[in-house]
Amino acid sequence: MKRFSVFAAVLLVLAFVGVKLNAMDSDASDNQYAPKDPGLSVATFAGGCFWCVEAGFEEVPGVVEVVSGYSGGEETNPTYQQVASGQTGHTEAVQVYYDPQQITYDGLLQALWRMMDPTDTEGQFVDRGKQYRPAIFYADDAQREAAETAKKALNESGRYEDPVAIEIVPFEHFYVAEDYHQDYYKTNPVRYKFYTFNSGRYQFIDKIWGEDRELDYAEYRPDQNEDKKMTQSNGQTEQPDLQSFVKPDKAELKARLTPLQYSVTQEDATERPFDNPYNDEKRAGIYVDIVSGEPLYLSNDKYDSGTGWPSFTKPIKPDAVVEDSDFSLFGKRTEIRSAIADSHLGHVFSDGPKDSTGLRYCMNSAAMRFIPKEDMAAAGYGEYVDQVKPPKS
Protein backbone atom coordinates (compact mmCIF):
# COMPACT_ATOMS: atom_id res chain seq x y z
CA MET A 1 0.00 0.00 0.00
CA LYS A 2 2.93 2.36 0.41
CA ARG A 3 3.31 3.15 -3.27
CA PHE A 4 -0.41 3.84 -3.50
CA SER A 5 -0.26 6.20 -0.52
CA VAL A 6 2.79 8.03 -1.88
CA PHE A 7 0.89 8.84 -5.00
CA ALA A 8 -2.48 9.46 -3.34
CA ALA A 9 -2.24 13.23 -3.74
CA VAL A 10 -1.19 12.92 -7.36
CA LEU A 11 -4.00 10.52 -8.12
CA LEU A 12 -6.57 12.85 -6.60
CA VAL A 13 -5.35 15.64 -8.84
CA LEU A 14 -5.50 13.37 -11.87
CA ALA A 15 -9.01 12.28 -10.97
CA PHE A 16 -10.02 15.93 -10.64
CA VAL A 17 -8.86 16.72 -14.18
CA GLY A 18 -10.72 13.75 -15.56
CA VAL A 19 -8.24 10.85 -15.68
CA LYS A 20 -10.19 7.66 -15.09
CA LEU A 21 -8.53 5.27 -12.65
CA ASN A 22 -11.18 2.57 -12.46
CA ALA A 23 -10.27 -0.95 -13.52
CA MET A 24 -11.11 -2.54 -16.79
CA ASP A 25 -11.84 -6.13 -15.87
CA SER A 26 -9.89 -8.55 -18.02
CA ASP A 27 -8.00 -11.79 -17.92
CA ALA A 28 -5.46 -13.55 -20.13
CA SER A 29 -8.16 -14.64 -22.55
CA ASP A 30 -9.08 -11.02 -23.25
CA ASN A 31 -5.66 -9.39 -23.36
CA GLN A 32 -5.88 -6.62 -25.91
CA TYR A 33 -2.20 -5.81 -25.36
CA ALA A 34 -0.93 -9.27 -26.29
CA PRO A 35 0.83 -9.55 -29.68
CA LYS A 36 -0.94 -11.73 -32.22
CA ASP A 37 2.22 -13.47 -33.45
CA PRO A 38 1.75 -17.22 -32.71
CA GLY A 39 5.51 -17.74 -32.82
CA LEU A 40 6.06 -15.84 -29.58
CA SER A 41 6.48 -17.49 -26.19
CA VAL A 42 5.10 -16.14 -22.90
CA ALA A 43 6.68 -15.93 -19.46
CA THR A 44 5.05 -14.61 -16.29
CA PHE A 45 7.04 -12.96 -13.51
CA ALA A 46 6.52 -10.78 -10.46
CA GLY A 47 9.14 -8.49 -9.01
CA GLY A 48 7.26 -5.85 -7.05
CA CYS A 49 6.01 -2.73 -8.80
CA PHE A 50 4.97 -3.86 -12.27
CA TRP A 51 5.84 -0.46 -13.73
CA CYS A 52 9.50 -1.22 -13.04
CA VAL A 53 9.44 -4.87 -14.10
CA GLU A 54 7.66 -4.00 -17.33
CA ALA A 55 10.21 -1.29 -18.09
CA GLY A 56 13.08 -3.66 -17.34
CA PHE A 57 11.93 -6.48 -19.57
CA GLU A 58 11.09 -4.18 -22.47
CA GLU A 59 14.81 -3.40 -22.72
CA VAL A 60 15.73 -7.07 -23.23
CA PRO A 61 16.57 -8.00 -26.84
CA GLY A 62 14.03 -10.42 -28.22
CA VAL A 63 11.19 -9.21 -25.99
CA VAL A 64 8.32 -7.97 -28.15
CA GLU A 65 5.79 -6.83 -25.54
CA VAL A 66 5.35 -6.75 -21.76
CA VAL A 67 1.92 -6.46 -20.17
CA SER A 68 1.29 -5.45 -16.56
CA GLY A 69 -1.32 -7.29 -14.53
CA TYR A 70 -2.12 -9.44 -11.52
CA SER A 71 -1.48 -13.11 -10.79
CA GLY A 72 -1.17 -15.60 -7.96
CA GLY A 73 -4.51 -15.05 -6.24
CA GLU A 74 -8.07 -16.33 -6.37
CA GLU A 75 -10.01 -13.14 -7.05
CA THR A 76 -11.46 -13.03 -10.57
CA ASN A 77 -10.86 -9.84 -12.57
CA PRO A 78 -9.47 -7.84 -9.64
CA THR A 79 -9.06 -4.07 -9.73
CA TYR A 80 -5.87 -2.30 -8.79
CA GLN A 81 -7.48 -1.02 -5.61
CA GLN A 82 -8.48 -4.55 -4.63
CA VAL A 83 -5.02 -5.96 -5.26
CA ALA A 84 -3.35 -3.03 -3.49
CA SER A 85 -5.47 -3.77 -0.41
CA GLY A 86 -3.64 -7.08 -0.04
CA GLN A 87 -6.87 -9.07 0.28
CA THR A 88 -7.00 -10.83 -3.12
CA GLY A 89 -3.92 -13.03 -2.88
CA HIS A 90 -2.68 -11.58 -6.16
CA THR A 91 0.68 -9.92 -6.67
CA GLU A 92 1.59 -7.34 -9.29
CA ALA A 93 3.01 -9.29 -12.22
CA VAL A 94 3.94 -9.01 -15.88
CA GLN A 95 3.59 -11.25 -18.88
CA VAL A 96 6.59 -11.18 -21.18
CA TYR A 97 6.01 -11.97 -24.86
CA TYR A 98 9.34 -12.91 -26.40
CA ASP A 99 10.79 -14.44 -29.53
CA PRO A 100 12.36 -17.78 -28.51
CA GLN A 101 14.62 -17.53 -31.56
CA GLN A 102 16.15 -14.36 -30.14
CA ILE A 103 16.24 -14.89 -26.34
CA THR A 104 15.95 -17.93 -24.11
CA TYR A 105 13.87 -18.32 -20.95
CA ASP A 106 17.18 -18.53 -19.07
CA GLY A 107 18.04 -15.09 -20.42
CA LEU A 108 14.78 -13.72 -19.07
CA LEU A 109 15.55 -15.18 -15.63
CA GLN A 110 18.94 -13.50 -15.61
CA ALA A 111 17.25 -10.23 -16.51
CA LEU A 112 14.72 -10.70 -13.69
CA TRP A 113 17.47 -11.07 -11.09
CA ARG A 114 18.80 -7.68 -12.15
CA MET A 115 15.58 -5.76 -11.59
CA MET A 116 14.36 -6.90 -8.14
CA ASP A 117 15.27 -8.50 -4.79
CA PRO A 118 14.65 -12.28 -4.85
CA THR A 119 15.32 -12.59 -1.10
CA ASP A 120 12.35 -10.49 0.03
CA THR A 121 9.05 -12.40 -0.02
CA GLU A 122 7.12 -9.76 1.93
CA GLY A 123 7.22 -7.11 -0.77
CA GLN A 124 9.79 -5.20 -2.75
CA PHE A 125 11.63 -2.12 -1.51
CA VAL A 126 9.15 0.58 -0.35
CA ASP A 127 6.16 -1.50 -1.48
CA ARG A 128 5.28 -3.84 1.36
CA GLY A 129 2.82 -6.69 1.48
CA LYS A 130 2.13 -9.95 -0.36
CA GLN A 131 0.60 -7.96 -3.20
CA TYR A 132 4.18 -6.98 -4.12
CA ARG A 133 5.86 -10.34 -3.48
CA PRO A 134 8.22 -11.66 -6.17
CA ALA A 135 7.34 -14.84 -8.02
CA ILE A 136 8.05 -16.95 -11.07
CA PHE A 137 4.89 -18.44 -12.54
CA TYR A 138 5.96 -21.37 -14.70
CA ALA A 139 3.82 -22.55 -17.61
CA ASP A 140 5.40 -25.98 -18.10
CA ASP A 141 8.06 -28.33 -16.75
CA ALA A 142 10.78 -26.73 -18.87
CA GLN A 143 10.16 -23.32 -17.32
CA ARG A 144 9.94 -24.83 -13.84
CA GLU A 145 13.25 -26.68 -14.19
CA ALA A 146 14.98 -23.62 -15.62
CA ALA A 147 13.66 -21.43 -12.80
CA GLU A 148 14.67 -23.88 -10.08
CA THR A 149 18.15 -24.29 -11.57
CA ALA A 150 18.65 -20.54 -11.84
CA LYS A 151 17.37 -19.97 -8.30
CA LYS A 152 19.70 -22.64 -6.91
CA ALA A 153 22.70 -21.19 -8.72
CA LEU A 154 21.87 -17.68 -7.52
CA ASN A 155 21.45 -18.91 -3.97
CA GLU A 156 24.84 -20.63 -4.05
CA SER A 157 26.61 -17.66 -5.60
CA GLY A 158 26.97 -15.85 -2.28
CA ARG A 159 25.77 -12.63 -3.88
CA TYR A 160 23.10 -12.01 -1.23
CA GLU A 161 23.38 -12.06 2.55
CA ASP A 162 19.89 -13.60 2.81
CA PRO A 163 18.64 -16.76 1.08
CA VAL A 164 17.09 -16.44 -2.37
CA ALA A 165 13.45 -17.15 -1.48
CA ILE A 166 11.44 -16.11 -4.55
CA GLU A 167 8.52 -18.49 -5.00
CA ILE A 168 8.30 -20.69 -8.09
CA VAL A 169 4.68 -21.71 -8.63
CA PRO A 170 2.44 -22.97 -11.46
CA PHE A 171 0.81 -20.34 -13.63
CA GLU A 172 -2.97 -20.26 -13.31
CA HIS A 173 -4.44 -16.90 -14.25
CA PHE A 174 -3.23 -13.51 -15.35
CA TYR A 175 -5.55 -10.51 -15.21
CA VAL A 176 -4.54 -7.47 -17.23
CA ALA A 177 -4.09 -4.30 -15.22
CA GLU A 178 -5.87 -1.05 -15.94
CA ASP A 179 -4.95 0.90 -19.04
CA TYR A 180 -3.10 3.63 -17.18
CA HIS A 181 -0.66 1.08 -15.75
CA GLN A 182 0.49 -0.14 -19.18
CA ASP A 183 3.78 1.44 -20.31
CA TYR A 184 3.61 3.72 -17.29
CA TYR A 185 7.30 4.52 -17.58
CA LYS A 186 6.63 5.95 -21.04
CA THR A 187 3.34 7.74 -20.44
CA ASN A 188 4.30 9.19 -17.05
CA PRO A 189 8.10 9.49 -17.15
CA VAL A 190 8.40 12.18 -14.46
CA ARG A 191 6.22 10.37 -11.93
CA TYR A 192 7.88 7.07 -12.80
CA LYS A 193 11.39 8.43 -12.24
CA PHE A 194 10.30 10.10 -9.00
CA TYR A 195 8.87 6.82 -7.73
CA THR A 196 11.78 4.60 -8.77
CA PHE A 197 14.42 6.93 -7.34
CA ASN A 198 12.67 7.11 -3.99
CA SER A 199 11.90 3.40 -3.88
CA GLY A 200 15.57 2.43 -3.53
CA ARG A 201 15.18 -0.32 -6.13
CA TYR A 202 17.99 0.67 -8.46
CA GLN A 203 20.34 1.69 -5.66
CA PHE A 204 19.95 -1.85 -4.29
CA ILE A 205 20.50 -3.44 -7.69
CA ASP A 206 23.63 -1.37 -8.35
CA LYS A 207 25.02 -2.37 -4.95
CA ILE A 208 24.34 -6.08 -5.45
CA TRP A 209 25.35 -6.45 -9.08
CA GLY A 210 27.85 -3.66 -9.74
CA GLU A 211 29.54 -4.12 -13.11
CA ASP A 212 27.61 -7.37 -13.66
CA ARG A 213 24.30 -5.53 -13.83
CA GLU A 214 24.67 -5.20 -17.60
CA LEU A 215 24.13 -8.56 -19.32
CA ASP A 216 25.59 -9.70 -22.60
CA TYR A 217 22.35 -11.07 -24.01
CA ALA A 218 24.23 -12.62 -26.91
CA GLU A 219 25.05 -15.43 -24.47
CA TYR A 220 21.33 -16.15 -24.14
CA ARG A 221 20.45 -16.12 -27.81
CA PRO A 222 19.61 -19.59 -29.18
CA ASP A 223 22.23 -20.64 -31.70
CA GLN A 224 20.85 -20.90 -35.20
CA ASN A 225 23.51 -23.40 -36.26
CA GLU A 226 23.03 -26.69 -34.42
CA ASP A 227 26.29 -28.01 -35.91
CA LYS A 228 28.24 -25.42 -33.96
CA LYS A 229 26.45 -25.62 -30.65
CA MET A 230 24.79 -28.55 -28.93
CA THR A 231 22.63 -28.76 -25.88
CA GLN A 232 23.07 -31.30 -23.15
CA SER A 233 20.07 -33.34 -21.99
CA ASN A 234 19.98 -31.42 -18.71
CA GLY A 235 19.39 -28.14 -20.50
CA GLN A 236 22.86 -26.75 -19.92
CA THR A 237 24.91 -25.41 -22.82
CA GLU A 238 27.99 -27.47 -23.57
CA GLN A 239 31.40 -26.02 -22.95
CA PRO A 240 32.97 -24.31 -26.00
CA ASP A 241 34.67 -26.79 -28.31
CA LEU A 242 38.27 -26.04 -27.42
CA GLN A 243 39.66 -28.98 -29.41
CA SER A 244 38.79 -27.19 -32.64
CA PHE A 245 39.81 -23.75 -31.40
CA VAL A 246 41.88 -21.76 -33.87
CA LYS A 247 43.56 -18.67 -32.52
CA PRO A 248 42.47 -15.53 -34.43
CA ASP A 249 45.09 -13.50 -36.23
CA LYS A 250 46.48 -10.28 -34.79
CA ALA A 251 44.05 -8.03 -36.65
CA GLU A 252 41.03 -9.90 -35.35
CA LEU A 253 42.41 -10.05 -31.82
CA LYS A 254 43.00 -6.30 -31.82
CA ALA A 255 39.41 -5.81 -32.93
CA ARG A 256 38.00 -8.17 -30.29
CA LEU A 257 40.15 -7.22 -27.30
CA THR A 258 40.68 -3.96 -25.48
CA PRO A 259 44.16 -2.42 -25.89
CA LEU A 260 45.08 -3.61 -22.39
CA GLN A 261 43.80 -7.14 -22.98
CA TYR A 262 45.76 -7.36 -26.22
CA SER A 263 48.90 -5.93 -24.65
CA VAL A 264 48.78 -8.38 -21.74
CA THR A 265 47.81 -11.57 -23.57
CA GLN A 266 49.73 -11.05 -26.82
CA GLU A 267 52.66 -8.84 -25.83
CA ASP A 268 53.32 -10.18 -22.31
CA ALA A 269 52.54 -6.87 -20.60
CA THR A 270 51.53 -6.52 -16.95
CA GLU A 271 48.55 -4.49 -15.81
CA ARG A 272 48.72 -2.07 -12.89
CA PRO A 273 48.30 -3.56 -9.41
CA PHE A 274 45.17 -2.66 -7.39
CA ASP A 275 43.66 -1.15 -10.55
CA ASN A 276 42.06 -4.18 -12.17
CA PRO A 277 38.58 -5.70 -11.86
CA TYR A 278 39.33 -9.10 -10.33
CA ASN A 279 41.79 -8.28 -7.56
CA ASP A 280 38.88 -7.63 -5.18
CA GLU A 281 36.42 -10.09 -6.74
CA LYS A 282 34.76 -12.00 -3.89
CA ARG A 283 32.06 -13.99 -5.67
CA ALA A 284 31.94 -17.66 -6.50
CA GLY A 285 32.61 -18.45 -10.13
CA ILE A 286 35.11 -19.47 -12.76
CA TYR A 287 37.91 -17.58 -14.54
CA VAL A 288 38.43 -18.39 -18.22
CA ASP A 289 40.86 -17.26 -20.91
CA ILE A 290 39.72 -13.97 -22.48
CA VAL A 291 40.67 -15.22 -25.96
CA SER A 292 39.52 -18.85 -26.06
CA GLY A 293 37.20 -19.25 -23.08
CA GLU A 294 39.23 -22.20 -21.79
CA PRO A 295 38.77 -22.76 -18.01
CA LEU A 296 41.72 -21.54 -15.94
CA TYR A 297 40.89 -21.06 -12.26
CA LEU A 298 38.05 -21.57 -9.78
CA SER A 299 37.15 -18.97 -7.18
CA ASN A 300 37.76 -21.63 -4.49
CA ASP A 301 41.48 -21.30 -5.10
CA LYS A 302 41.58 -17.50 -5.14
CA TYR A 303 42.97 -15.65 -2.14
CA ASP A 304 44.03 -12.14 -1.18
CA SER A 305 47.79 -12.07 -1.65
CA GLY A 306 48.06 -8.35 -0.97
CA THR A 307 49.96 -7.84 -4.22
CA GLY A 308 47.18 -6.05 -6.11
CA TRP A 309 46.63 -8.81 -8.68
CA PRO A 310 44.18 -11.74 -8.56
CA SER A 311 46.08 -14.66 -7.05
CA PHE A 312 45.34 -18.38 -6.96
CA THR A 313 46.90 -21.37 -5.25
CA LYS A 314 46.44 -23.64 -8.27
CA PRO A 315 44.87 -23.80 -11.74
CA ILE A 316 41.57 -25.60 -12.34
CA LYS A 317 43.58 -28.64 -13.49
CA PRO A 318 47.32 -29.18 -13.91
CA ASP A 319 47.30 -29.02 -17.71
CA ALA A 320 45.09 -25.91 -17.90
CA VAL A 321 48.21 -23.74 -18.00
CA VAL A 322 51.78 -24.14 -19.16
CA GLU A 323 54.98 -22.81 -17.66
CA ASP A 324 57.73 -20.98 -19.50
CA SER A 325 60.99 -19.38 -18.42
CA ASP A 326 60.95 -15.59 -18.35
CA PHE A 327 64.26 -13.68 -18.22
CA SER A 328 62.78 -10.26 -18.98
CA LEU A 329 63.10 -8.76 -15.51
CA PHE A 330 65.99 -9.15 -13.06
CA GLY A 331 66.71 -12.81 -13.52
CA LYS A 332 64.55 -15.83 -14.12
CA ARG A 333 60.81 -16.01 -13.42
CA THR A 334 58.25 -18.67 -14.30
CA GLU A 335 55.70 -17.37 -16.73
CA ILE A 336 52.18 -18.84 -16.93
CA ARG A 337 50.38 -19.11 -20.27
CA SER A 338 47.06 -20.66 -21.21
CA ALA A 339 47.41 -24.12 -22.70
CA ILE A 340 45.21 -23.64 -25.76
CA ALA A 341 45.20 -19.96 -26.72
CA ASP A 342 48.80 -19.43 -25.56
CA SER A 343 47.77 -16.21 -23.83
CA HIS A 344 50.19 -14.64 -21.37
CA LEU A 345 48.41 -14.82 -18.02
CA GLY A 346 51.00 -13.88 -15.41
CA HIS A 347 53.63 -15.64 -13.29
CA VAL A 348 53.82 -18.24 -10.54
CA PHE A 349 55.81 -17.75 -7.33
CA SER A 350 56.65 -19.97 -4.37
CA ASP A 351 55.38 -17.57 -1.68
CA GLY A 352 51.79 -18.78 -1.63
CA PRO A 353 49.79 -20.06 1.37
CA LYS A 354 51.67 -22.81 3.18
CA ASP A 355 48.42 -24.56 4.13
CA SER A 356 47.71 -25.12 0.45
CA THR A 357 50.09 -25.61 -2.46
CA GLY A 358 52.60 -22.99 -1.30
CA LEU A 359 52.28 -21.39 -4.74
CA ARG A 360 50.97 -18.01 -5.86
CA TYR A 361 49.65 -17.89 -9.39
CA CYS A 362 49.70 -14.13 -9.87
CA MET A 363 47.42 -13.39 -12.82
CA ASN A 364 46.40 -10.36 -14.87
CA SER A 365 42.67 -9.57 -14.78
CA ALA A 366 42.96 -8.42 -18.39
CA ALA A 367 43.86 -11.94 -19.48
CA MET A 368 40.71 -13.51 -18.03
CA ARG A 369 36.94 -13.33 -18.00
CA PHE A 370 35.07 -14.01 -14.77
CA ILE A 371 31.76 -15.88 -14.96
CA PRO A 372 29.64 -15.81 -11.76
CA LYS A 373 28.42 -19.18 -10.54
CA GLU A 374 24.80 -18.43 -11.39
CA ASP A 375 25.76 -17.79 -15.03
CA MET A 376 28.14 -20.72 -15.50
CA ALA A 377 25.66 -23.29 -16.79
CA ALA A 378 24.24 -20.94 -19.39
CA ALA A 379 27.76 -19.96 -20.47
CA GLY A 380 28.76 -23.59 -21.01
CA TYR A 381 30.62 -24.36 -17.78
CA GLY A 382 27.92 -26.35 -15.98
CA GLU A 383 30.24 -29.27 -15.29
CA TYR A 384 32.15 -27.11 -12.80
CA VAL A 385 29.18 -25.60 -10.94
CA ASP A 386 29.17 -28.15 -8.12
CA GLN A 387 32.87 -27.54 -7.50
CA VAL A 388 32.60 -23.78 -7.10
CA LYS A 389 32.73 -22.01 -3.76
CA PRO A 390 33.51 -18.39 -2.74
CA PRO A 391 37.19 -17.36 -2.57
CA LYS A 392 39.26 -17.88 0.54
CA SER A 393 39.09 -14.91 2.91
Q: Can you describe this structure?
A:
Belongs to the MsrB Met sulfoxide reductase family. Belongs to the MsrA Met sulfoxide reductase family. The radius of gyration is 24 Å and the shape is elongated. It has helices at residues 2-6, 8-16, 50-57, 80-84, 105-113, 141-156, 184-187, 189-199, 201-209, 250-256, 259-267, 373-379; strands at 41-46, 63-71, 91-98, 123-124, 127-128, 135-138, 167-170, 174-176, 285-289, 295-298, 302-303, 311-312, 321-326, 333-338, 344-349, 360-363, 368-372. It is 25% helix and 20% strand. The longest helix is centred in the middle third of the chain and has 16 residues, at 141-156. It is built from 12 helices and 17 strands.
Main sheet overview: 6 strands, mixed
Assigned CATH superfamily of the largest domain: Peptide methionine sulphoxide reductase MsrA
Strand order of the largest sheet: 7-6-1-3-2-8
By DSSP, the count of extended strands is 17
CATH architecture of the largest domain: 2-Layer Sandwich
Beta-strand percentage? 15-25%
What is the succession of H and E elements? Answer: HHEHEHEHEEEHEEHHHHHEEEEEEEEEH
> Ends: how far apart?
42 Å
Helical residues, percent? 25-40%
Q: Cα-atom Rg, whole angstroms?
A: 24 Å
How many structurally independent domains? Answer: 2
Provide a concise account of the structure shown.
By secondary structure, the protein is of the alpha+beta class.
